[in-house]
Amino acid sequence: MTVTLASLSQQTGLAVLDHLEQSVSIPVLEGLQAQGDLIVIPLAEIAATLTFHPNAFWTDVPPEGIELLRGAAGGNPHTLVADPATCRWTRHVSDSGGLAIGVFEASAPVYLLHPEHGASGCVPGHYAIRRQREHSPGSWSPRLVAD
Q1: Partners of 35 in the β-ladder
Q2: Burial 54-71 (b: 16+ CB within 10 A, else e)
Q3: d(CA 114, CA 109)
Q4: What is the model's pLDDT at position 81?
Q5: How far apart are alpha carbons 93 and 99 in whole angstroms?
Q6: What are residue 31's phi and psi, to 5 degrees?
Q7: Within the chain, which residues score under 70 in pLDDT?
Q8: What sign has the CA pseudo-torsion 25, 62, 19, 29?
Q9: Are 141 and 133 in contact (CB under 8 A)?
C-alpha cells in the first residue's frame, strides 16, 4: 500500500499546509533523518551515549500518532505515526547532551509527520529521536534549532 501525505493527514487528523503536494508517496528511508528541529538516529549509532531509565515505560504508537515535539516558532507538532501493533515508544531515556526525546522500535515502516515539512518514513528498526543543535554565527555556544 502506498502511503501519501493525504492518507497520513487523514489517519492522524493533523492538517498539513496547502503548499505541500498531498498525493506524493512518502519515502521510507534508513539511516539518519532530520525534520526541522529533530533528528532521527539509528539506535546502534548512539546506543553507548543513551541511558534508559530504570523501569522505562513503553507505549504502543496508536494509528493517530504520538506527538514527539512541538516546534518553538510555529507551534506545529512532529508526530510519529505507525500502523497498529507495529511500533512502541518511550520517553524514558537520557543522554549527556540533554538532547534525547525518546526511542522507538518498529517492526514495519513508521512515519514522521509535520504540518510544514510534510512526512518521511523510517524502515523497521530501533531509533533514537533527539533535538538538533546549531552554532550561531559569531558564537561558540550551540543552541537548539528552532522550528
Answers
A1: 38
A2: eeeeeeebeeebbebbeb
A3: 17
A4: 94
A5: 10
A6: 95, -170
A7: 1, 17, 71-74, 133-147
A8: negative
A9: no
Spatial strand order of the sheet with 28-29 comes to: 28-29, 118-122, 110-114, 77-81, 66-70
Give the model's pLDDT for residue 143. 47
| Cα separation, 26 vs 43, whole angstroms | 22
In what helix (H) or strand (E) does residue 7 lie, and over which residues does it extend? helix 5-12
CA 37 to chain CA centroid, nearest Å? 10
3-state secondary structure (DSSP) of residue 8: helix
Residue bearing cell 523497521: 124
φ/ψ (deg, to 5) at 45 = -75, -25
The domain limits of the chain are 5-144
Q: How far apart are CA 107 and CA 130, in angstroms?
A: 21
Query: What pLDDT score does 136 carry?
Result: 62
d(CA 36, CA 7): 21
Strands 38-42 and 100-106: unpaired
What amino acid occupies position 38? Answer: L
